[in-house]
Design brief:
The chain has about 650 residues and is an all-alpha fold. About 65% of the residues lie in helices and about 0% in strands. The chain is built from 40 helices and no strands. The chain has helices spanning about 1-10, 25-45, 60-70, 80-90, 95-100, 105-110, 120-130, 130-135, 140-155, 160-170, 175-185, 195-200, 205-225, 230, 235-250, 265-280, 295-310, 310-325, 345-350, 360-370, 375-385, 390-395, 400-410, 415-425, 425-435, 435-450, 455-465, 470-480, 495-505, 510-520, 525-530, 535-545, 550-560, 565-570, 570-585, 585-595, 600-605, 605-615, 620-625, 625-645. Helix 13 (about 205-225) crosses helix 15 (about 235-250), helix 17 runs parallel beside helix 20 (about 360-370) and helix 28 (about 470-480) packs across helix 30. It is globular and about 75 Å long.
């Protein structure tokens, strides 16, 4: 270890700066370290003759599993994975329950299940189906049961996804990669180096095997429905219920994401989902379900699944029952306590409906806000639960996220006016308490609904004490979300919410004050802002703003002249250079390339700078400007033809 530290110290002077690492370097390193830590712990358990947590295994069995685990930590191609999966699960035949109930065995079986062949997987499904209760109630085996349900879902519904797959083929690589990542999020924390989402959807299986997988999902769902009263209170079985409910709705991600589309599933699965809903609503103790995190999360996933089926009747029935029996009840007295789950001070809680009395009920209410029909959201949830309490909830650490959800999903201008009226005088308080997300939600809603924009800008500038200050100070105050009269001891970084608020303001109907302020800033300070990760997206908002004039865009391109070479040296700044190049007129584009050509050799030393040079043909311009003009025109013609073929969208010119 000492030698390693010494080598690191000696090589520190020549080590590349952190900014030169790949985008996902630290994330990937953390995953690798976590996998290696699990393997290291598994080996140490074996040395102490303690063969893993959970079911006790023989020493030879445990050592075999550890060896397999070590093999699996290395990257393998698909054929190697299939071979390992079939061989290992063949060796474990007859020992599936005991192996799945062991921590190491559970981890291995989870990763291998997706790559098993039809015969092996069908045999496992039958074994699991005969022992549902054992698997549901074991803290390690339940993870394996969830994975079998997930893999069976993907294999069963893969042929139904032809239309969706066709849409993905027409999308860009970046969007497709995002979808793959979202799809894989359902896999246990997304820690596995053996992903199964794309593999199971693309692999070819016999129709008979797909039918077996479909029957397994339906059999599991019926078993859980019949034992719902018992399993809903079990910690491990609760996760299995959640997985089953989401899968019946075609949802593969446990975490809610806005851009993820549910898979197409058979109509029969929707009927099973409705059976879950009907049975839960028929319970006499239905109102008690929101009091525990474990049961409230089941209701959250049920709401998400029902929303994905587009059955408005079933969805509104469940939301209405939650509203009537769990959310909208008599106000809690000061003396009343809620078993240590208090989220707001008792004095504040006495004025609020029961929906805001615990963390679990607040999270459930947030999901209701997201999936509720617009009329129900306005007439019931807002009018009965939020109205008159918006400021108090926005300043609450636990409840301000519910306010953000409410504002984000408001589609009615009258309702937005009422929310804004309760919050307009508390903008400074929100910033001081750190609840900047509420201010951001207001900014986005004002831009989306085209209402209260002037008041929002006035209140924001008043809160930041920058109504009558220099343009640079005003922009800095918004980006850092710090009052202009406050001087921090160290240079503050751009606040993510501050950048997003500025981007939303640039989408307002009259963003002239901020457009002018950006154009009047010293170009070196503006370039510094645009070089930062959060600040770089201000350029996107400026260029694509609906009410930012074409002349203002050209002024910004001209204003940054002399800073383009410096911008290109940073990862995010290089992206801004490309944006400015696209926004400029032909003469401005040539000026940008001329500036880059003067430092061509220096820029080629960075991968992102070299990419910009290659795309803008900077090397060609340096050798022969006349040939560059011809080449750029030809490239523009090719791009136009390509846009016509694939239906590319052009930016509308705004006056």
């Amino acid at each position: 270890m000492a030698e390693l530290k010494k080598e690191a110290a000696e090589g520190s002077s020549t080590a590349p700066p952190p900014t030169e690492r790949g985008k996902n370097h630290y994330k990937n390193r953390a995953k690798k370290q976590k996998r290696n830590k699990f393997l290291k712990n598994a080996k140490s358990f074996g040395k102490r003759e303690s063969f893993g947590r959970g079911a006790e295994l023989e020493q030879t069995e445990y050592n075999y599993l550890v060896a397999i685990l070590e093999t699996m930590t290395k990257e393998k191609d698909t054929e190697e994975r299939q071979l390992i999966a079939n061989n290992v699960l063949g060796q474990l035949k007859g020992k599936e329950i005991r192996t799945a109930s062991n921590q190491v065995g559970s981890r291995i079986m989870e990763d291998l299940l997706a790559y098993t062949d039809e015969e092996t997987f069908a045999g496992l499904l039958e074994t699991f189906a005969q022992n549902f209760r054992v698997f549901c109630c074991d803290k390690f085996a339940s993870h394996v049961l969830q994975r079998t349900l997930y893999v069976a879902l993907l294999r069963a519904v893969a042929p139904l996804q032809t239309d969706q797959q066709g849409e993905e083929d027409g999308e860009g690589e970046e969007q497709s990669a995002k979808k793959q990542k979202a799809g894989g999020a359902a896999e246990r924390g997304d820690r596995s180096v053996w992903p199964c989402y794309e593999y199971c959807l693309k692999e070819q299986y016999a129709d008979e095997h797909r039918q077996t997988c479909r029957q397994y999902v339906e059999r599991m769902a019926k078993y859980l429905i019949n034992n719902l009263e018992e399993f809903v209170w079990e910690a491990t079985a609760g996760y299995v219920i959640r997985q089953c409910v989401l899968n019946l709705g075609g949802i593969t991600e446990k975490k809610a994401t806005n851009d993820a589309k549910p898979l197409t599933v058979p109509e029969q699965w929707h009927k099973l989902l409705h059976e879950f809903n009907v049975q839960l609503m028929a319970w006499p103790q239905f109102a008690d379900l929101i009091g525990m995190e474990q049961t409230a999360t089941i209701l959250q996933d049920l709401l998400r699944a029902l929303a994905s089926t587009d059955d408005a009747f079933q969805l509104e029935q469940l939301i209405a029952k939650l509203f009537k029996e769990a959310f909208y009840t008599k106000k809690v007295k000061k003396e009343e306590k809620d078993n240590g789950e208090a989220t707001v001070k008792q004095e504040e809680k006495s004025d609020l409906p029961k929906a805001f009395q615990s963390d679990s009920s607040i999270r459930l209410l947030e999901v209701c806000i997201v999936v509720a029909p617009a009329a129900f959201l306005k007439d019931k949830l807002f009018s009965k639960l939020f109205r008159g309490h918006v400021k108090q909830l926005a300043l609450s650490r636990a409840c301000n996220f519910a306010i953000q959800k409410l504002i984000d999903h408001t589609t009615d201008k009258d309702m937005m006016d009422m929310v804004f009226a309760e919050l307009e005088d508390s903008m400074e308080d929100l910033l001081q308490t750190g609840h900047t997300g509420v201010v951001l939600a207001l900014a986005k809603a004002c831009a989306r609904l085209a209402c209260q924009q002037g008041k929002f800008v006035k209140n924001l500038l008043d809160a930041l004490h920058c109504v009558e200050v220099a343009p640079t100070k005003m922009i800095n105050a918004v980006l850092h979300l710090l009052p202009a009269n406050v001087t921090p001891s160290t240079a503050p970084k751009i606040h993510l919410h501050g950048s997003l608020i500025l981007q939303a303001i640039l989408d307002f109907n009259k963003p002239i004050k901020f457009v002018t302020a950006l154009l009047e800033m010293p170009n070196d300070r503006l370039a510094e802002i645009l070089s930062e990760p959060a600040g770089s997206f201000v350029a996107n908002a400026f260029v694509t703003g609906r009410f930012v004039g074409e002349k203002s865009r050209e002024k910004l391109v001209r204003h940054l002249e002399g800073q383009y070479a410096q911008l290109t040296l940073s990862v995010h700044g290089s992206r801004v250079v490309e944006i400015m190049y696209e926004a400029g007129n032909p003469a401005q584009r040539e000026n940008i390339v001329r500036e880059l050509a003067e430092q061509c050799e220096r820029l080629n030393g960075k991968p992102w700078s070299a990419k910009v040079n290659k795309r803008l043909l900077v090397d060609l311009y340096k050798r022969n400007p006349a040939r560059w003009k011809v080449a750029i025109k030809n490239d523009a013609k090719v791009e136009k033809m390509f846009d016509k073929l694939v239906g590319g969208k052009k930016r509308k010119a705004e006056s």
